[in-house]
Amino acid sequence: MRVNPEPESDACAVAVEPHPAWLRVLLARHAKRPHSLDYISRLIAGFEEVHGDRSFADDPAIVAGFGFFEDRPVMVVAEQKGRNTKQKLYRNFGMPKPEGYRKALRVMQMAAKFGRPVITLLDTPGAYPGIDAEERGQAEAIARNLREMSRLPVPVVAVCIGEGGSGGALALGVGNIVLMLENAVYSVISPESCAAIIYRDSAKAEQAAAALRLTAEDLLGLGLIDGIVPEPPGGAHEDPDAAAESLREHLRLRLDELAAYDGPALVDHRYAKFRKMGNFFA
Fold it and tell me: Which one of 11, 192, 247, 275 is at 20 to 30 Å from 268 when CA atoms are compared?
């Protein structure tokens, strides 16, 4: 906060800088920030998308498929936002419906069958809260993903690349390794919704963002993530290629690290990791 010690008028009495946590929220939502397909096109060779949940429909808010990460066969499951109005409507603003999570689970089960590591990219304000999604079992689909991801006998690396919103992100976030880009945010609720509940005023989102401890540094300090992926100066939108190369280095390191584990050990590793969360008295 910058305060003029001797204000000459009410108009220039106080100049307030946004809280650093709120600045991270704004960067995570930046209109030009790279989305999942931007990273996939730079990091995954020969990517072939898989569509549909074999039950109801295909959900464009989740992109899933297989390809090669540096000659290593992998499965990728990612939440995808739109860039312009048409794309945003098509991708439902990055808010998946139950069929999206079921498609994701279908692809992850294929990864388990063929022994391929899974890379998930998290970037959603949250799961779609519409009536149609609730009718088709939104909560059940998310809960099933949490359970089944915990049992996958293959390496799982989850990366929050933008917004990690509540269960909508966590449904793809049960990984052996969980990473965040430097300017990403990951929280149980959006600052606006939190402010509406706690302060009865959604305009106090900045205050809520500070209280939520949603930045990468906060979550690393709390032991909820395993690493922070640096971004170019100014944010990933300033140089998407450099941001992708930074992510490439971290994915390579983590996948090599997990390659030493067999299937049961990977499950035990994942279980122990999430079991420790929230325990500060060990």
Answer: 247
